[in-house]
Write a structure and sequence with these properties.
Number of helices: 12
Pfam families: Tyrosinase (PF00264)
Bound molecules: 2-acetamido-2-deoxy-beta-D-glucopyranose, copper (II) ion
Domain Tyrosinase copper-binding: 303-314
Order of helices and strands: HHEHHHHEEEEEEHHHHHHEEE
CATH superfamily: Di-copper center containing domain from catechol oxidase
GO molecular function, one term: metal ion binding
Number of strands: 10
Strand order of the largest sheet: 1-10
CATH class: Mainly Alpha
Structural class: mainly alpha
Strand content: 5-15%
InterPro entries: Di-copper_centre_dom_sf, Tyrosinase/Hemocyanin, Tyrosinase_Cu-bd
Shape: globular
Signal peptide: 1-18
CATH architecture: Orthogonal Bundle
Distance between the termini: 46 Å
Amino acid sequence: MFQPTAWAAALFAGIAAAQSYPADVVGKLAESSLSKLKDFLAKNPQGSCTYETAVKRREWSNLTVKERKAYTDAVLCLMSKPALTTSQAPGAKSRFDDYVVVHIQQTPRNHGSTFFLPWHRYYIWHYENALRTECGYTGYQPYWNWDRYAKDPANSPLFDGSEGSMGGNGAKEAHQGIPIPGAPRPYNMIPPADGGGCVTTGPFKNMTVNLGPLAPTLQITRNPRSDGLGANPRCLRRDVNKNAAAVTTANYTYDLITNNKEIYWFQTVMEGQFPQGKWGVHAGGHYTVSGDPAGDFYVSPGDPVFWLHHAMIDRVWWIWQMQDLEKRLAQVSMTRTMNNMPPSANGTLDDLSGLGVLAADVKVRELMSTMGGLGGKFCYMYE
Ligand SMILES: *[C@@H]1O[C@H](CO)[C@@H](O)[C@H](O)[C@H]1NC(C)=O
Ligand SMILES: *[C@@H]1O[C@H](CO)[C@@H](O)[C@H](O)[C@H]1NC(C)=O
Ligand SMILES: *[C@@H]1O[C@H](CO)[C@@H](O)[C@H](O)[C@H]1NC(C)=O
Ligand SMILES: *[C@@H]1O[C@H](CO)[C@@H](O)[C@H](O)[C@H]1NC(C)=O
Ligand SMILES: [Cu+2]
């Protein structure tokens, strides 16, 4: 028997469930930590950056569809402006590609090293600033709270392919899973999901990926240059993957923040402990997108959703720092090379970190605080 009321109620529940997310344990922890930040700022004023003046980066589904479109329009605008890096990277076609070039060039320095968290903080801020100053975007960099979509990322507000999404999943195309080097079975392979082909829906359905690949997880035509910086135009591919997303639920992030008191362990657990079969939330988020270039360690910023993932990485570091600001705003660890290969000295707050031709080197010390870092240019929190 047809029951219109039950049908309407079910439909309404579906819509409501898709759009409202109760605070998770990590969000509650962030909320309850803000008083520590206020106290710290009262004792250590940061010039014009105050608790009241700091801007708030917001979660993707907390933006209205109009706000999300303003963001993706600004990204498309960056993709339409001429590149500044063509002399080093003949494949770079746009200002958006400039950021991919810098990541490719600095990948070994900025992962598994002292620079991982501070450098990516600088990198995201600079990109956000380009969207605002070069493309008229008036909002701030949104983040992707992994937990919200982990159960079914392909049908989430981030990847459902609607105009308010970051673009859809890739078309279904047979492909392999993602090998996780050094991990024991069954953690040595992230099983493939239902995409793998070109993204055909949402704001980025027509985008061209120009650079790379360098470490492809799909069969992609090789770049004409060994450094990946030559022209290799192709479609954006994704394999939105809930197998990877399973390690990004809030309990993993909460555990990461609360059970690792030293930066060395916080960063190590975040970046993954593959020999122990632990992928970590960092790889988990990257491989939730997968495909090309999102699954490529070097070229991943060429998928626009990278920036929302790394904003979440930055948010998690911010929440971790708030637990003990006196100490954690000054804590770095690891060495100057990826996984200390080749061996190098421990990095320090006086080491330099920069964005190649895009932005000057600054001391790591300048990148430690979202509230007053970079000579006061950093002045943000996460909602
Ligand atoms: C899609 O991309 C092609 C090639 O870059 C371009 O010629 C075309 O105008 C684009 N279409 C839309 C609707 O943006
Ligand atoms: C998080 O929860 C899942 C599902 O209940 C569980 O399998 C996993 O071990 C938990 N992870 C952590 C780090 O607690
Ligand atoms: C480098 O850091 C490690 C731990 O992070 C520490 O054990 C070691 O003593 C440091 N080395 C030097 C030369 O400071
Ligand atoms: C979502 O936005 C509302 C205001 O628009 C805010 O009160 C709430 O804290 C936000 N929640 C999260 C988790 O960002
Ligand atoms: Cu990176």
